[in-house]
Write a structure and sequence with these properties.
The chain has about 55 residues and is an all-alpha fold. It has helices at about 1-25, 35-50. The chain has a domain at about 1-25. It has two helices and no strands.
């Protein structure tokens, strides 16, 4: 049963990622600034730390 739940969660995550990638590709181009990269880095590190915490 757990394997089915995990597979469904993985499928949903992949669908969300694909949707975000397609959204990004269809948007207007803009050059990323150092502030943009800092923001991206902070957000990614926060997500990594959140996953490290026990549930």
């Amino acid at each position: 049963m757990r394997a089915l739940i995990r597979a469904d969660e993985k499928r949903k995550a992949e669908e969300q990622l694909e949707a975000k990638l397609l959204e990004g590709l269809s948007g207007a181009e803009s050059e990323l600034t150092p502030a943009d990269w800092s923001s991206i880095r902070r957000e990614a590190l926060a997500k990594v730390e959140a996953r490290k915490k026990p549930r």
